[in-house]
Amino acid sequence: MVASVQIRKPENWQDFEKLCKKLWGEIWKCSDTIQRNGRNGQNQHGVDVYGIPQGLNVYYGIQCKGKDEYTHSQLTEKEIDREIAKAKTFEPPLKRFVFATTANKDAAIETYIRKKNIESLEEGSFEICISCWEDIVDLLEEQRNTYNWYINNCQYKDSSDVSVTIEGEMEYTIRPQYYRTTKIYKHSPANPYITLNSRMIPPPIINPPSKEDYSWIYVYIRVQNIGNTVISDYKLYLNFVDTNIEDTSDLFHLPMNWGMNDAARTTLWNRIIQNREVIKYSDCCDFVIIPTEKILVQTDSRSFKIGLKPKSNAEKIELQWDFKSRDYNKEGTIVIKVEPIYEEREQIILQEPYEILKAPEIVIEPKIIEKE
Are residues 190 and 110 in the same domain? Predict the structure, then answer.
């Protein structure tokens, strides 16, 4: 199977209309009768392509909406309403009306289409559905005749493009772990021989165990060449919007190397530093990624690991990125949703019998576990 990212969108609306005619002609098994509606400038009644699927005696219609790949424009509700109203004037009446668009999938628009579909069916009118670019790619991969025609006959200009994601996702969810402790205050039992202020001094710990903080999250930033040119000499700048970030890390640590002399240790450290790819260069939130391999060929990708510690009340984090290379630059944003996992605990705190009891408190702290 060819990866979806390799099937590029048509350069113009005319090519997209041809693609829709050939694709749905193959899907509906009416390649010899499916037609484009009228010519440019004529009233098309909201229908660009129409045909009678094999075995039926009703017309299906397609409205082809080419959207700009680079501004990521989407269908709007007003645009949908306007085209549905036009399609209701198509003669003879349609049984199904398809919005085919090069726009990427959008949950809000798909929800609106579903609502309009129910309204239309309740009125006794046609069925309404939508195929966004990802859906069209899926259909192309199932209809091999159209797929081969599209790949082999459509010519494109050379175009550079990259995607920057977290593990392939533009919206990524992290789940830091915390203790949610309910502090309950109680009076201590009256005992003249016990004082609450006395404390036992614990013995010193010679070799304390290491600890792991589960409120830290480690993610892989993926850079992928999705264009049809080689990208060289590139860097990636990252900035976490710091309002919801407590700390970040580039995971860089120099080894202690006990037993080495100063010259050997310096040589080793210099070698490690020279091969360092992820560099944190501000107190909290700014990184630069400088790959040691300077070339990113078509469809290839690289991933780089970083650590982040969200604030305990964070719900969303924005990661702004700026990709720079010798001949191509691009900027974007990744949305990181924060869905904390809480381990509930209860802590009893004793007060002196004569003190007024404090109200219960809830305290959220990072989940830290000692490692053996």
Answer: no
